[in-house]
């Protein structure tokens, strides 16, 4: 168990470092490409990807999560899951090809046809590496996964920037995705050196397929619920409006998305191994949840308070309309930071059916909100989105926690320090902002505002709420040391 803990902590550290670097690289990519191609080009690709990403949910079909969550799995079962993924990926590629003329007709935009055709190849490419990725997750080899993700992403971005530089327009975004997918799958095969056996359909896969099917259906419902507004905006407000909305959404969501990817994958793997050890399970979950919330709060509140300068620095002056959208979407992303980690709790303990039921309930709520906000454009949709998510927050948390070893008091205790610290830090930074607001450089303004807010936030969190010992011990564990015996939250 101690070995599992060390692997989990170091895996989380490797993923966090990798995602931190990835965040910087992604922001640089966005900053460069946003200045080389128009918002409408982003909107064109978004018109396609809002549909193809829906198909992408079926590429894994939840079989990677099934392989990770299972306490014991044979080589024959892993191979069976691999061939299931290949079959599904091929079928999705064909479906994507058939979708191309439909998208052209729906949006009345002929350029979407070949974008969709090229993206179709990515389904088979990704499917070929799904179980290899799951194998590394089961072994908690997150350092290797971090290197693979970083290399493939960097290669894709390098190709994308080059294509944008030479005037390829929206094809630069398509090329980025395809190159990254191909590089990732190739590296996964080389790293695991696992070659699947020939298909043996008699192998017992029923329980794994059931788990994976439930996960996939859950992901499908959630994706439709959280992305349907992009389809509506593209259809009724056009590529420019969708490009501005999508840019703001990506900007505010990117840091927390990377953070969830860094912590969530490791947490799910480790919690699945600890599902029968209640004390350690609870301690590990709450520690991971606290860390995630602490980072999510400062990022989302900072984006909301300093939205104008964030957009100017990240996207440039052509994207000034995105600042209002970013500010209106920030509460939604903060709420995601609170509720998304609860999926670790449900899935790792086999409560995937409850997760699916919750998704089915929330979907019509947010889609109705989009309909209410749509006549008022991207801003109206963003406002309605955040409003309904705020109203849904408490029922969602209580439903997830019902009957589990995690109580509502546990969640409130984890949320209170970063949330209160974030509010105080945001007000403090706003009060001091007039001192440097006359500076002409948005980079300098944002740097000063962000530094002041971060300093106030850390002071409140570490000293005002007494979190210093917790984070000191966490850093010591990441370096391979031993946590303080006095810390009651030590895993």
Give a short synopsis of this structure.
With 491 residues, this protein is mainly alpha-helical. It has helices at residues 2-33, 39-60, 63-69, 75-107, 112-127, 130-138, 142-165, 171-192, 206-273, 278-305, 307-314, 322-339, 342-348, 352-373, 377-401, 408-432, 442-464, 468-478.
Strand and helix layout:
Layout lengths: L1 H32 L5 H22 L2 H7 L5 H33 L4 H16 L2 H9 L3 H24 L5 H22 L13 H68 L4 H28 L1 H8 L7 H18 L2 H7 L3 H22 L3 H25 L6 H25 L9 H23 L3 H11 L13
- Overall mean pLDDT: 81
Helix content: over 70%
Care to count the β-strands? Answer: 0
> Tally the helices: what do you get?
18
The fraction of residues in strands falls at under 5%
For the biggest sheet, the summary is: none
The stretches of 5 or more residues where confidence is low (pLDDT under 50) are: 481-491
3D structure, described in words:
The chain has one domain. The protein is globular, with a radius of gyration of 22 Å. α1 (2-33) packs parallel to α7. The chain has helices spanning 2-33, 39-60, 63-69, 75-107, 112-127, 130-138, 142-165, 171-192, 206-273, 278-305, 307-314, 322-339, 342-348, 352-373, 377-401, 408-432, 442-464, 468-478. By secondary structure, the protein is mostly helical.
């Amino acid at each position: 168990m101690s070995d599992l803990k060390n692997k989990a902590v170091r895996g989380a550290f490797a993923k966090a470092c990798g995602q931190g670097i990835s965040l910087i690289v992604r922001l640089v990519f966005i900053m460069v490409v946003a200045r080389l191609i128009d918002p409408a080009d982003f909107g064109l690709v978004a018109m396609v990807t809002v549909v193809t990403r829906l198909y992408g949910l079926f590429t894994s079909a939840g079989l990677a999560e099934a392989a990770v969550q299972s306490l014991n799995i044979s080589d024959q079962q892993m191979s069976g899951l691999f061939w299931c993924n290949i079959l599904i990926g091929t079928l999705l590629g064909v479906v994507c090809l058939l979708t191309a003329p439909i998208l052209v007709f729906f949006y009345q935009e002929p350029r979407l046809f070949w974008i969709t055709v090229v993206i179709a190849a990515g389904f088979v490419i990704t499917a070929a590496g799904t179980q290899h990725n799951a194998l590394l997750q089961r072994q908690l080899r997150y350092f290797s996964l971090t290197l693979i993700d970083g290399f493939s992403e960097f290669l894709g971005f390098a190709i994308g920037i080059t294509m944008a530089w030479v005037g390829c327009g929206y094809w630069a975004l398509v090329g980025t995705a395809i190159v990254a997918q191909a590089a990732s799958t190739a590296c996964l095969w080389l790293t695991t050196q696992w070659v699947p056996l020939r298909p043996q359909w008699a192998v017992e896969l029923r329980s794994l397929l059931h788990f994976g099917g439930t996960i996939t259906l859950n992901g499908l419902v959630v994706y439709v619920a959280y992305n349907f507004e992009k389809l509506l905006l593209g259809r009724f407000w056009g590529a420019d409006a969708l490009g501005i909305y999508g840019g703001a959404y990506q900007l505010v969501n990117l840091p927390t998305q990377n953070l969830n990817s860094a912590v969530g994958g490791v947490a799910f793997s480790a919690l699945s191994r600890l599902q029968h050890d209640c004390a350690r399970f609870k301690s590990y979950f709450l520690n991971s949840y606290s860390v995630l919330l602490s980072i999510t709060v400062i990022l989302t509140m900072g984006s909301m308070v300093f939205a104008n300068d964030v957009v100017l620095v990240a996207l440039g002056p052509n994207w000034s309309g995105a600042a209002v959208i970013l500010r209106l979407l920030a509460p939604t992303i903060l709420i995601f930071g609170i509720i998304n980690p609860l999926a670790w709790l449900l899935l790792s303990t086999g409560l995937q059916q409850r997760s699916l039921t919750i998704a089915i309930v929330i979907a019509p709520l947010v889609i109705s909100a989009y309909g209410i906000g749509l006549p008022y454009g991207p801003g109206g949709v963003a406002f309605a989105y955040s409003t309904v998510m705020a109203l849904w927050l408490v029922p969602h948390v209580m439903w997830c926690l019902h009957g589990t070893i995690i109580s509502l008091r546990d969640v409130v205790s984890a949320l209170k320090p970063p949330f209160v610290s974030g509010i105080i830090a945001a007000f403090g930074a706003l009060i001091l902002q007039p001192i440097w607001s006359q500076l002409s450089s948005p980079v300098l303004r944002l740097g000063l505002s962000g530094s002041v807010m971060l300093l106030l936030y850390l002071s409140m969190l570490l000293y005002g709420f007494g979190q210093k010992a917790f984070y000191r011990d966490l850093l010591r564990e990441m370096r391979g040391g031993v946590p303080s015996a006095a810390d009651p939250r030590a895993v």
